[in-house]
Give the backbone structure.
Amino acid sequence: MDARTLWSGGIATAVVVALIALVGVVVFRGVFGIPILAPEGDGVWGDASTTWLMVGAAVVALCSVALVHLLLLSTPRALSFFGWIIGLATVVGGVAPFVTDAEIASKLASALINVVIGFAILGLVSGVARTAAGRAARNL
């Protein structure tokens, strides 16, 4: 496996999902007026929670790259297992907002952002992993 390709793609994925989080917050707060992650009076950006969501999404993406790297080195059908793990984690991320006492619109918006982040991580990291494994096979 070409680790440099895997990790450079993983860093790019981290940037993409951080931006997905930002776009989601700005769209729901600014366009639809749904107060996610902060009270409505905190404007379109929200508060520090928006930054933490972006950082958290990026960290999850990098952890996903570490996971797929480990799976590729040690597990048969690594991408199948990776898909199941990230898919189930995405379900948890989609359900998690519903255990809070926020308004239903805020819960739905947060869940949607989490699910889109999960799908992005699944698709981008899986694609990067396939490319990294293919490059290594061509270099043998």
About this structure: The mean pLDDT is 91. Residues 3-138 form one domain. Residues 104-138 form the longest helix (35 residues).
